[in-house]
Amino acid sequence: MSKYQVNKEGYYGPFGGAYIPEMLYPNVEELQQQYLDIMADPSFQQEFEQLLRDYVGRPSPLYRANRLSEKYKTNIYLKREDLNHTGAHKINNTIGQILLAERLGKKRIIAETGAGQHGVATATVCALKGLECVVYMGEIDIKRQAPNVARMKMMGATVVAAQSGSKTLKDATNEALRDWINNPVDTHYIIGSVVGPHPYPDMVARFQSIISEETKKQLLEKTGKENPDIVMACVGGGSNAAGMFYHFLDAEDVQLIAVEAAGHGVNSGESAATTVLGKEGVLHGSRSILMQTEDGQVIEPYSISAGLDYPGIGPQHAWLFKSGRGSYVSATDDEAMQAGLLLTKLEGIIPAIESSHALAHLEKMNFKGDETVVICLSGRGDKDLDNYMNYFGF
């Protein structure tokens, strides 16, 4: 048993658990009792793998970025989750969860979304399976991610604006949890990140672990060894990073680097760098690290990237940070935008602004020259073109 994976009680070290209202207990307990058995069932495995292959387009390529490698004088590979159907890693998890929901007999699906990628991925699998879909999205995010809202509606989803608080991802999550409390019997909540009450952080990480599973095989083919020296990913709640790290957790010689969103700067008052600014507490059903005031009120996060604009971090990430297994660093809006433009110019790949945060950290690293570095390119930048255009004045 890995010391970095969840234990039987649903904890990673001191983090995790299920801190939920009594009304939600039956739903969460049903998931806790059944998720592992359902996921291990051969018919589930077969359908999951077939859909990942034929519908999502997996395996996603592992691409050696030659010009980027030349610039930083090392060997940089990009795990191309941006090439998945719907344009991000999010679809890996929604395919898994929709199959789970079907086997639990659920007829209605709800989800929360920030950047809209998880909302699109949820609407996509609901269309695929003919299930009702309601997506909660912050009013501000609805404005800044209009193309994704249109996609969800085209696929038959109802998009509900969250108008409380900062009107972003945290508030959308609150609204989705309220819905689930009111509709406990027929509804499954597809959480998009490695957050929420147990078993969600573990379940989502397992569905996303396909990222590192493929990476090991692809690296072996390309370099003759399964393990890279360094693995990097951006972190909001942290699902792409959890998937990218999954099969390397116990390989202590593999350095894990997670890049949070520093916004206008860690000390600017407008940031989402949870591990620097946060302290231990409970958010959205699990014990983790979150940005909060002295009396425990959640501090509003800020990032130019809607997908990293979250005041907490998944409990597994909190444990990787606290135990020292992972390095948790941050990149500002400006650093991320410049890194996104650099990748576009050097490699002809426009990354999501989320992924650009991971790329930005390359500037701060000192390479010997022979390292193998894998960066999870978690999503493509189509959804962010307006942001890029406004920022750079194109």
Automatic annotation (TrEMBL):
EC number of the protein: 4.2.1.20
InterPro entries (UniProt xref): Trp_synth_b_CS, Trp_synth_beta, Trp_synth_beta/beta-like, TrpB-like_PALP, TrpB-like_PALP_sf
Keywords: Amino-acid biosynthesis, Aromatic amino acid biosynthesis, Lyase, Pyridoxal phosphate, Tryptophan biosynthesis
Short name of any one Pfam family annotated for the protein: PALP
Gene Ontology MF term list: tryptophan synthase activity
Substrates-to-products reaction catalysed: (1S,2R)-1-C-(indol-3-yl)glycerol 3-phosphate + L-serine = D-glyceraldehyde 3-phosphate + L-tryptophan + H2O
Tryptophan synthase beta chain-like PALP domain location: 57-379
This protein's record includes keyword Lyase: yes
Metal-binding in keyword set: no
GO cellular component: cytoplasm
Domain of life: Bacteria
Cofactor: pyridoxal 5'-phosphate
Functional pathway: Amino-acid biosynthesis; L-tryptophan biosynthesis; L-tryptophan from chorismate: step 5/5
EC category name: lyase
Modified-residue entries (N6-(pyridoxal phosphate)lysine), positions: K90
Subunit organization: Tetramer of two alpha and two beta chains.
Family: Belongs to the TrpB family.
Job description of the protein: The beta subunit is responsible for the synthesis of L-tryptophan from indole and L-serine.
Protein name (Swiss-Prot/TrEMBL): Tryptophan synthase beta chain
Organism: Sphingobacterium humi
Gene: trpB
